[in-house]
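thread from #wetlab-drylab

HS: before we spend reagent money on co-crystallization trials with protoporphyrin IX containing FE, can we at least see a predicted complex? here's what I'd submit
DV: go for it
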Amino acid sequence: MSKSAFIKSSIAKKYWMALTGLFLCLFLVGHLLGNLQLIFSTGEEGRRVFNEYAFFMTTNPAVKALSYLTYFSILFHAIDGIALLIQNKKARPIPYAYSKPSENSSLPSRYMALLGTLVLVFIATHMSNFWWKMKYTEEIPLHSYYSSMAQDTMYLTQKGEQISLNQLRMVGTTEGSQLIMKADKVNKLIEANFSNQINSNVLDEDELAELELAKNNQLVKKDEVLGEGYRDLHTVVSAFFSKNNKSESGVPLGLLGMLFYVVSMAVMAFHLWHGFASAFQSLGLNHPKFTPIIQLFGKGFAIVVPLLFAIIPVFLYLIS
Ligand code: HEM
Protein backbone atom coordinates (compact mmCIF):
# COMPACT_ATOMS: atom_id res chain seq x y z
CA MET A 1 0.00 0.00 0.00
CA SER A 2 1.41 3.44 -0.94
CA LYS A 3 1.98 6.04 1.76
CA SER A 4 -0.96 8.23 0.69
CA ALA A 5 -3.24 5.20 0.40
CA PHE A 6 -2.28 4.23 3.95
CA ILE A 7 -3.18 7.69 5.26
CA LYS A 8 -6.48 7.64 3.40
CA SER A 9 -7.42 4.04 4.22
CA SER A 10 -10.04 3.38 6.84
CA ILE A 11 -7.49 1.39 8.89
CA ALA A 12 -5.26 4.46 9.09
CA LYS A 13 -8.21 6.67 9.96
CA LYS A 14 -9.15 4.32 12.79
CA TYR A 15 -5.55 4.28 13.98
CA TRP A 16 -5.36 8.08 14.22
CA MET A 17 -8.81 8.29 15.78
CA ALA A 18 -7.66 5.82 18.42
CA LEU A 19 -4.46 7.75 19.18
CA THR A 20 -6.21 11.13 19.39
CA GLY A 21 -9.09 9.56 21.36
CA LEU A 22 -6.74 8.07 23.96
CA PHE A 23 -4.87 11.36 24.25
CA LEU A 24 -8.23 13.09 24.85
CA CYS A 25 -8.95 10.54 27.61
CA LEU A 26 -5.72 11.65 29.29
CA PHE A 27 -6.80 15.28 28.88
CA LEU A 28 -10.12 14.40 30.54
CA VAL A 29 -8.35 12.98 33.60
CA GLY A 30 -6.17 16.09 33.97
CA HIS A 31 -9.07 18.46 33.39
CA LEU A 32 -11.22 16.55 35.87
CA LEU A 33 -8.56 16.65 38.60
CA GLY A 34 -8.20 20.41 38.11
CA ASN A 35 -11.94 21.03 38.12
CA LEU A 36 -12.59 18.87 41.19
CA GLN A 37 -10.90 21.68 43.11
CA LEU A 38 -14.17 23.56 42.58
CA ILE A 39 -15.70 21.05 45.00
CA PHE A 40 -12.88 20.22 47.37
CA SER A 41 -11.32 23.59 48.01
CA THR A 42 -14.04 25.85 49.29
CA GLY A 43 -14.27 29.34 50.76
CA GLU A 44 -11.90 32.23 50.08
CA GLU A 45 -8.85 29.99 50.20
CA GLY A 46 -10.43 27.60 47.68
CA ARG A 47 -11.21 30.47 45.33
CA ARG A 48 -7.61 31.69 45.49
CA VAL A 49 -6.18 28.20 44.96
CA PHE A 50 -8.43 27.55 41.94
CA ASN A 51 -7.67 30.94 40.37
CA GLU A 52 -3.93 30.45 40.83
CA TYR A 53 -4.29 27.01 39.26
CA ALA A 54 -6.27 28.45 36.30
CA PHE A 55 -3.58 31.09 35.84
CA PHE A 56 -0.86 28.44 35.78
CA MET A 57 -2.83 26.39 33.24
CA THR A 58 -3.25 29.33 30.88
CA THR A 59 0.27 30.70 31.06
CA ASN A 60 2.71 27.82 31.63
CA PRO A 61 4.43 27.13 28.26
CA ALA A 62 4.38 23.31 28.66
CA VAL A 63 0.67 23.32 29.54
CA LYS A 64 0.04 25.69 26.63
CA ALA A 65 1.72 23.24 24.24
CA LEU A 66 -0.49 20.43 25.63
CA SER A 67 -3.53 22.67 25.15
CA TYR A 68 -2.72 23.13 21.46
CA LEU A 69 -2.31 19.36 21.13
CA THR A 70 -5.75 19.00 22.76
CA TYR A 71 -7.46 21.43 20.33
CA PHE A 72 -5.75 19.67 17.43
CA SER A 73 -6.80 16.23 18.72
CA ILE A 74 -10.43 17.31 19.15
CA LEU A 75 -10.59 18.66 15.59
CA PHE A 76 -8.66 15.75 14.08
CA HIS A 77 -10.72 13.14 15.95
CA ALA A 78 -13.97 14.76 14.79
CA ILE A 79 -12.95 15.31 11.15
CA ASP A 80 -11.43 11.84 10.87
CA GLY A 81 -14.60 10.37 12.37
CA ILE A 82 -16.80 12.11 9.80
CA ALA A 83 -14.48 11.05 6.96
CA LEU A 84 -14.60 7.44 8.19
CA LEU A 85 -18.38 7.52 8.34
CA ILE A 86 -18.63 8.86 4.77
CA GLN A 87 -16.05 6.32 3.53
CA ASN A 88 -17.94 3.43 5.14
CA LYS A 89 -21.28 4.63 3.74
CA LYS A 90 -19.75 4.87 0.24
CA ALA A 91 -18.21 1.41 0.54
CA ARG A 92 -21.54 -0.12 1.59
CA PRO A 93 -24.46 2.05 0.52
CA ILE A 94 -26.87 -0.86 1.09
CA PRO A 95 -26.63 -2.54 4.50
CA TYR A 96 -25.94 -6.25 4.81
CA ALA A 97 -29.12 -8.19 4.04
CA TYR A 98 -28.82 -10.35 7.13
CA SER A 99 -27.41 -7.76 9.44
CA LYS A 100 -28.95 -7.70 12.89
CA PRO A 101 -27.06 -4.86 14.62
CA SER A 102 -28.73 -5.45 17.96
CA GLU A 103 -27.27 -8.97 18.06
CA ASN A 104 -23.78 -8.10 16.82
CA SER A 105 -22.92 -4.88 18.56
CA SER A 106 -23.76 -2.80 21.61
CA LEU A 107 -26.06 0.22 21.35
CA PRO A 108 -23.32 2.85 21.94
CA SER A 109 -21.05 1.26 19.29
CA ARG A 110 -23.74 1.78 16.63
CA TYR A 111 -24.23 5.42 17.55
CA MET A 112 -20.58 6.48 17.97
CA ALA A 113 -20.79 9.17 15.26
CA LEU A 114 -23.98 10.67 16.69
CA LEU A 115 -22.65 10.53 20.27
CA GLY A 116 -19.34 12.03 19.13
CA THR A 117 -21.15 14.88 17.36
CA LEU A 118 -23.13 15.64 20.52
CA VAL A 119 -19.90 15.64 22.57
CA LEU A 120 -18.43 18.06 20.02
CA VAL A 121 -21.47 20.34 20.38
CA PHE A 122 -20.94 20.20 24.14
CA ILE A 123 -17.21 21.05 23.82
CA ALA A 124 -17.94 24.01 21.51
CA THR A 125 -20.62 25.38 23.87
CA HIS A 126 -18.46 24.69 26.92
CA MET A 127 -15.42 26.44 25.47
CA SER A 128 -17.51 29.49 24.60
CA ASN A 129 -18.80 29.53 28.22
CA PHE A 130 -15.41 29.77 29.93
CA TRP A 131 -12.33 29.30 27.77
CA TRP A 132 -13.27 31.96 25.18
CA LYS A 133 -14.10 34.47 27.91
CA MET A 134 -10.85 33.75 29.72
CA LYS A 135 -8.67 33.98 26.63
CA TYR A 136 -10.27 36.54 24.37
CA THR A 137 -12.42 38.87 26.47
CA GLU A 138 -12.08 41.12 29.47
CA GLU A 139 -15.30 39.70 30.94
CA ILE A 140 -13.58 37.79 33.74
CA PRO A 141 -12.89 40.14 36.64
CA LEU A 142 -9.63 40.16 38.56
CA HIS A 143 -9.44 38.09 41.72
CA SER A 144 -9.99 40.41 44.69
CA TYR A 145 -10.99 39.94 48.32
CA TYR A 146 -11.94 42.04 51.30
CA SER A 147 -9.23 42.52 53.91
CA SER A 148 -10.71 43.47 57.28
CA MET A 149 -7.24 44.54 58.43
CA ALA A 150 -6.81 47.04 55.59
CA GLN A 151 -10.57 47.70 55.55
CA ASP A 152 -10.38 47.64 51.79
CA THR A 153 -10.73 45.33 48.83
CA MET A 154 -7.33 43.96 47.85
CA TYR A 155 -5.83 42.52 44.68
CA LEU A 156 -3.20 39.82 45.06
CA THR A 157 -0.40 40.00 42.51
CA GLN A 158 1.42 36.98 41.17
CA LYS A 159 4.46 38.04 43.20
CA GLY A 160 2.39 37.79 46.37
CA GLU A 161 2.10 41.57 46.80
CA GLN A 162 -1.22 43.17 47.67
CA ILE A 163 -2.60 46.29 46.05
CA SER A 164 -5.63 47.95 47.53
CA LEU A 165 -8.60 49.02 45.48
CA ASN A 166 -8.38 52.58 46.82
CA GLN A 167 -4.75 52.84 45.83
CA LEU A 168 -5.63 51.53 42.38
CA ARG A 169 -8.53 53.96 42.03
CA MET A 170 -6.23 56.86 42.86
CA VAL A 171 -3.25 56.04 40.69
CA GLY A 172 -4.09 53.19 38.42
CA THR A 173 -6.38 50.91 36.52
CA THR A 174 -6.64 47.29 35.41
CA GLU A 175 -6.03 46.11 31.89
CA GLY A 176 -6.55 42.39 31.34
CA SER A 177 -4.87 40.81 34.34
CA GLN A 178 -2.42 43.70 34.74
CA LEU A 179 -2.61 46.24 37.55
CA ILE A 180 -1.22 49.40 36.00
CA MET A 181 -0.07 52.65 37.55
CA LYS A 182 -1.17 55.35 35.11
CA ALA A 183 1.36 58.15 34.68
CA ASP A 184 -1.33 60.80 34.09
CA LYS A 185 -3.19 59.90 37.32
CA VAL A 186 0.02 59.92 39.42
CA ASN A 187 1.15 63.18 37.85
CA LYS A 188 -2.18 64.82 38.64
CA LEU A 189 -1.71 63.90 42.33
CA ILE A 190 1.87 65.24 42.31
CA GLU A 191 0.80 68.48 40.61
CA ALA A 192 -2.02 68.93 43.15
CA ASN A 193 0.37 68.35 46.05
CA PHE A 194 2.83 70.96 44.78
CA SER A 195 0.18 73.56 43.95
CA ASN A 196 -1.07 73.10 47.55
CA GLN A 197 2.42 73.84 48.85
CA ILE A 198 2.77 76.85 46.56
CA ASN A 199 -0.66 78.24 47.45
CA SER A 200 -0.32 77.80 51.20
CA ASN A 201 3.17 79.39 51.53
CA VAL A 202 4.63 82.76 50.73
CA LEU A 203 7.62 81.83 48.58
CA ASP A 204 10.42 83.81 47.00
CA GLU A 205 11.62 83.10 43.46
CA ASP A 206 14.39 80.66 44.52
CA GLU A 207 12.05 78.59 46.67
CA LEU A 208 9.54 78.49 43.83
CA ALA A 209 12.21 77.29 41.39
CA GLU A 210 13.29 74.67 43.91
CA LEU A 211 9.73 73.37 44.27
CA GLU A 212 9.30 73.36 40.50
CA LEU A 213 12.49 71.28 40.17
CA ALA A 214 11.37 68.87 42.90
CA LYS A 215 8.02 68.47 41.16
CA ASN A 216 9.63 67.76 37.79
CA ASN A 217 11.84 65.14 39.42
CA GLN A 218 8.80 63.40 40.89
CA LEU A 219 6.66 63.42 37.76
CA VAL A 220 6.36 59.96 36.23
CA LYS A 221 7.22 59.53 32.57
CA LYS A 222 5.23 56.47 31.64
CA ASP A 223 2.63 53.96 32.85
CA GLU A 224 4.10 51.22 35.03
CA VAL A 225 2.86 47.68 35.62
CA LEU A 226 2.44 47.29 39.38
CA GLY A 227 1.84 43.60 39.06
CA GLU A 228 -0.21 40.88 37.40
CA GLY A 229 -3.34 39.73 39.16
CA TYR A 230 -5.30 36.52 38.72
CA ARG A 231 -8.54 36.20 36.80
CA ASP A 232 -11.44 35.18 39.04
CA LEU A 233 -12.50 32.15 37.01
CA HIS A 234 -13.80 30.46 40.17
CA THR A 235 -16.47 33.11 40.68
CA VAL A 236 -17.42 33.06 36.99
CA VAL A 237 -17.86 29.25 36.92
CA SER A 238 -19.78 29.26 40.25
CA ALA A 239 -22.03 32.09 39.05
CA PHE A 240 -22.68 30.28 35.76
CA PHE A 241 -24.17 27.24 37.54
CA SER A 242 -25.83 29.25 40.29
CA LYS A 243 -29.57 29.11 41.09
CA ASN A 244 -29.42 32.91 40.93
CA ASN A 245 -28.20 32.92 37.34
CA LYS A 246 -31.42 34.01 35.65
CA SER A 247 -32.08 36.06 32.52
CA GLU A 248 -33.92 39.38 32.81
CA SER A 249 -37.15 37.61 31.87
CA GLY A 250 -36.60 35.02 34.63
CA VAL A 251 -35.28 32.07 32.56
CA PRO A 252 -33.28 29.90 35.03
CA LEU A 253 -29.98 29.91 33.12
CA GLY A 254 -28.07 28.28 36.00
CA LEU A 255 -30.51 25.34 36.12
CA LEU A 256 -30.47 24.93 32.34
CA GLY A 257 -26.67 25.14 32.25
CA MET A 258 -26.39 22.53 34.98
CA LEU A 259 -28.83 20.18 33.18
CA PHE A 260 -27.04 20.67 29.86
CA TYR A 261 -23.75 19.64 31.47
CA VAL A 262 -25.29 16.61 33.18
CA VAL A 263 -26.98 15.35 29.98
CA SER A 264 -23.77 15.99 28.00
CA MET A 265 -21.80 13.93 30.51
CA ALA A 266 -24.28 11.04 30.04
CA VAL A 267 -23.68 11.32 26.28
CA MET A 268 -19.93 11.34 26.84
CA ALA A 269 -20.25 8.25 29.05
CA PHE A 270 -21.91 6.32 26.20
CA HIS A 271 -19.27 7.54 23.73
CA LEU A 272 -16.46 6.37 26.04
CA TRP A 273 -18.25 3.10 26.89
CA HIS A 274 -17.47 1.79 23.42
CA GLY A 275 -14.65 4.16 22.46
CA PHE A 276 -12.08 3.44 25.17
CA ALA A 277 -11.54 -0.30 24.58
CA SER A 278 -12.20 0.07 20.85
CA ALA A 279 -9.19 2.41 20.59
CA PHE A 280 -6.89 -0.39 21.80
CA GLN A 281 -8.38 -2.71 19.16
CA SER A 282 -7.78 -0.12 16.42
CA LEU A 283 -4.17 0.18 17.52
CA GLY A 284 -3.90 -3.60 17.16
CA LEU A 285 -3.30 -4.07 20.88
CA ASN A 286 -5.10 -7.36 21.35
CA HIS A 287 -4.08 -9.87 23.95
CA PRO A 288 -6.12 -12.76 25.35
CA LYS A 289 -5.13 -11.84 28.90
CA PHE A 290 -5.08 -8.02 28.77
CA THR A 291 -7.98 -7.23 26.42
CA PRO A 292 -10.71 -8.23 28.95
CA ILE A 293 -8.92 -6.07 31.58
CA ILE A 294 -8.78 -3.11 29.17
CA GLN A 295 -12.47 -3.59 28.36
CA LEU A 296 -13.37 -3.62 32.04
CA PHE A 297 -11.17 -0.60 32.78
CA GLY A 298 -12.72 1.23 29.78
CA LYS A 299 -16.21 0.68 31.16
CA GLY A 300 -15.16 1.86 34.59
CA PHE A 301 -13.54 4.93 33.02
CA ALA A 302 -16.70 5.61 30.98
CA ILE A 303 -18.77 5.66 34.17
CA VAL A 304 -16.48 7.28 36.75
CA VAL A 305 -15.00 10.17 34.72
CA PRO A 306 -18.28 11.61 33.31
CA LEU A 307 -20.00 11.02 36.67
CA LEU A 308 -17.37 13.05 38.54
CA PHE A 309 -17.54 15.77 35.88
CA ALA A 310 -21.35 15.88 36.23
CA ILE A 311 -21.16 16.19 40.02
CA ILE A 312 -19.32 19.54 39.71
CA PRO A 313 -22.15 21.62 38.14
CA VAL A 314 -24.74 19.86 40.34
CA PHE A 315 -22.70 20.69 43.45
CA LEU A 316 -22.21 24.32 42.40
CA TYR A 317 -25.94 24.63 41.68
CA LEU A 318 -26.96 23.14 45.02
CA ILE A 319 -24.62 25.23 47.18
CA SER A 320 -25.50 28.51 45.42
C1 HEM B 1 -18.43 19.58 33.91
C2 HEM B 1 -17.40 20.09 34.42
C3 HEM B 1 -16.44 20.99 33.71
C4 HEM B 1 -16.07 22.21 34.18
C5 HEM B 1 -16.52 22.90 35.45
C6 HEM B 1 -15.10 22.73 33.23
C7 HEM B 1 -14.48 23.96 33.36
C8 HEM B 1 -13.62 24.50 32.43
C9 HEM B 1 -13.03 25.81 32.54
C10 HEM B 1 -13.26 26.77 33.70
C11 HEM B 1 -12.25 26.00 31.43
C12 HEM B 1 -11.45 27.25 31.09
C13 HEM B 1 -10.05 27.06 31.58
C14 HEM B 1 -9.12 28.07 31.04
O1 HEM B 1 -9.31 28.65 29.98
O2 HEM B 1 -8.14 28.22 31.74
C15 HEM B 1 -12.33 24.81 30.63
C16 HEM B 1 -11.64 24.59 29.45
C17 HEM B 1 -11.80 23.50 28.65
N1 HEM B 1 -12.66 22.43 28.86
FE1 HEM B 1 -13.76 22.14 30.53
N2 HEM B 1 -14.91 21.83 32.21
C18 HEM B 1 -15.73 20.76 32.44
C19 HEM B 1 -15.86 19.63 31.63
C20 HEM B 1 -15.24 19.45 30.41
C21 HEM B 1 -15.38 18.28 29.57
C22 HEM B 1 -16.22 17.07 29.94
C23 HEM B 1 -14.63 18.48 28.46
C24 HEM B 1 -14.43 17.59 27.27
C25 HEM B 1 -15.30 16.73 26.83
C26 HEM B 1 -14.01 19.79 28.59
C27 HEM B 1 -13.18 20.35 27.66
C28 HEM B 1 -12.52 21.54 27.82
C29 HEM B 1 -11.52 22.04 26.89
C30 HEM B 1 -11.04 21.33 25.61
C31 HEM B 1 -11.07 23.27 27.41
C32 HEM B 1 -9.96 24.16 26.87
C33 HEM B 1 -8.71 23.64 27.57
C34 HEM B 1 -7.43 24.35 27.25
O3 HEM B 1 -7.43 25.49 26.79
O4 HEM B 1 -6.39 23.73 27.54
N3 HEM B 1 -14.40 20.34 29.79
N4 HEM B 1 -13.17 23.91 31.25
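DV: The mean pLDDT is 90.
HS: ok that's useful, forwarding to the group
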